[in-house]
Design brief:
Structural class: mainly alpha
Order of helices and strands: HEHHEHEEEHHH
Strand order of the largest sheet: 3-4-5
Number of strands: 5
Helix content: 55-70%
Radius of gyration: 48 Å
Low-confidence stretches: 1-27, 84-98
Number of helices: 7
Largest sheet: 3 strands, antiparallel
Mean pLDDT: 78
Length: 208
Amino acid sequence: MKFGKTLVLTALLTAGAAFGLGTNDAHAAENYTVKSGDTLSKISIKFTGDNSLVNSIAKDNNISNVNMIFEGENLTINTDAKGNTTVAPVQTTQATTQQTAPAATTQTTATQETAQTEQAATTATATAATTSTTNSTNSAKEWIAQKESSGSYTATNGQYIGRYQLSASYLNGDYSAENQERVADQYVTSRYGSWEGAQAFWQANGWY
């Protein structure tokens, strides 16, 4: 009978040990959902207080790059696994943002350069147009001056005085070249809109 009791007790102890071992194994692997700012190193420290689980987490979850995990990802954590504690430097969200920034800055700079180029082209076109208009105005003005007085500021023809043969009343007693130019511009602008318009009228009528 003693032998029988001993055998039964041994069997129970063995079963209890096996049951306990199975229970420990069941709790050794845990599920963990990745949160914002998490890295494998931080997760390992949460479970063991050090980096010993980094490699095992990567292996168990088929993570090829230990520096790349995603928020909301479900990971299996085997707390019994202890591996090499040497871990490659982990990139944080901030580092990723800093790496992305130069590309955005480059794109912005390129856009600014394009805008500046377009503005320069517009300015050049406007300048060319203004120059062309000025040249045309000067040409028409000189054409009339030559027709009216051969370009002389002292030419007279009755009541008409100077380079543009303006009425003496227009010049108001001031026959200087400066006043002749100023009054002629005012007269032509108010009556014809431009020297080109005055030239066209002169060509059609023989006076302006």
